[in-house]
Design a protein that fits this description.
Blueprint lengths: L1 E5 L4 H12 L2 E5 L2 E7 L3 E9 L4 E10 L3 E7 L5 E8 L2 E5 L6 E3 L4 E5 L4 E7 L5 E8 L1 H4 L12 H7 L8 E4 L4 H11 L5 H27 L10 H16 L7 H8 L3 H12 L3 H19 L4 H7 L5 H12 L3 H18 L1
Helix pairs in contact: 4-5, 6-8, 9-12
């Protein structure tokens, strides 16, 4: 096991110090920094994107050939870190502790340390890792006009306003599959340049809100639904992803129950927990989202879009589309085409 000491003053320093230890190449494009590794130490990339108000994101998409431990010093650059583990696993501990805590796939971790403390992140060897890290520099973030720290629960509030870094904090979150869907969206962004940066930033704030919501549920004692196991929730997520891939298919509770081996009651509980919608509401939501995407990017008229996503009535589609988005499909398509041309002009 090899230890890498990190005493960064900013996210780019973080990449540079990993690069110095492991050997790779750092490139920059549109303010996105990428460390590419392809040697005896690791294969993959670590990316960093800084945003305004002390927010930055680091994405690991990498496989290490050896066990590595990052020893991260908590000095002047000592952000709150919101970590979501999309794939693989890793362990964390503070310098004052000997016991490492495992962060599994689809689980999260929030932590920060006292000034002068150390954080240890232990990465396994030969395991595909996809990890999203949102870092918040508190002094800068609290200056943002739309930041309202008083809306946080007391424990998180105390950490956010601890701009002198006097406290140590960690929270190991439970299974969260909604965050996985946002990571997947982030990976699928095809835009370039400034447009890509803006889209990533929007999803980063969505992820941050999900981290905070999950901690609020923990703070209030709200746990995973007792009617469902973790494996059953994963089965329901797979159904949710199937519906995204094939929105035009005719889905019914009977068919989904038979396919999954879960009762209709468990299906409804699972969809409500993961997607805050019943099965029927979720299918309708996915079809409408698919319609929006087609009208933004495909050379189809509204009628063609309607039937390609599984609706049989254009009038019904137009009614629920306007109810959901506040605009008719025709008007939305016109605006989307205008926005697409503007987007291409700045890419």
């Amino acid at each position: 096991m090899l230890e890498i000491e990190i005493s960064a003053e900013n996210p780019l320093d973080f990449l540079n110090q990993i690069n110095d230890a492991l050997g790779g190449e750092i490139t920059e494009k549109w303010n996105e920094y990428s460390l590419k590794l392809n040697n005896e130490n690791a294969f993959g990339t670590i990316k960093s994107i800084p945003f305004d108000w002390g927010v930055n994101v680091i994405d690991f998409d990498i496989k290490f050939s050896k066990e590595f431990v990052l020893k991260i010093e908590a000095d002047d650059f000592n952000p709150i870190r919101f970590i979501y583990n999309y794939n693989g696993s890793f362990k964390h501990r503070f310098g004052i502790n000997n016991e490492e805590k495992l962060v599994e796939k689809f689980h999260s971790l929030i932590f920060t340390n006292k000034t002068g403390g150390c954080n240890y992140i232990h990465f396994p060897k030969n395991e595909k890792l996809e990890i999203n890290v949102i870092q918040i520099v508190r002094k800068n973030f609290l200056k943002k006009r739309t930041t309202n720290a008083s809306l946080l629960n007391k424990r998180l509030y105390d950490i956010f306003v601890d701009t002198d870094h006097d406290n140590r904090f960690s929270h190991y979150g439970s299974l969260n599959l909604r965050m996985a869907d946002f990571i997947k969206k982030m990976k699928k962004i095809k835009s370039k340049g400034m447009v890509k940066t803006l889209k990533v930033e929007a999803l980063v704030y969505e992820m941050l809100s999900l981290h905070i919501q999950q901690h609020n549920k923990f703070y209030k004692g709200i746990q995973l639904p007792t009617s469902l196991s973790k494996n059953e929730l994963k089965i329901i997520r797979r159904l949710g992803l199937k519906i995204i891939k094939k929105p035009s298919y005719h889905y019914s509770l009977d068919q989904l129950s038979l396919e999954s081996g879960l009762s209709q009651a468990k299906l409804q509980d699972g969809f409500k927990f993961l997607y805050t919608r019943t099965v029927t509401e979720y299918v309708r939501h996915i079809r409408l989202e698919a319609a929006r995407e087609l009208m933004r990017n495909a050379d189809l008229n509204v009628s063609q879009v309607v039937y390609s996503i599984g609706f049989t009535s254009r009038s019904y589609f137009s009614k629920i589309f306007k109810q959901k988005y506040g605009v008719t499909p025709n008007d939305y398509r016109k605006n989307a085409l205008n926005n697409l041309m503007a987007e291409e002009s700045v890419s």
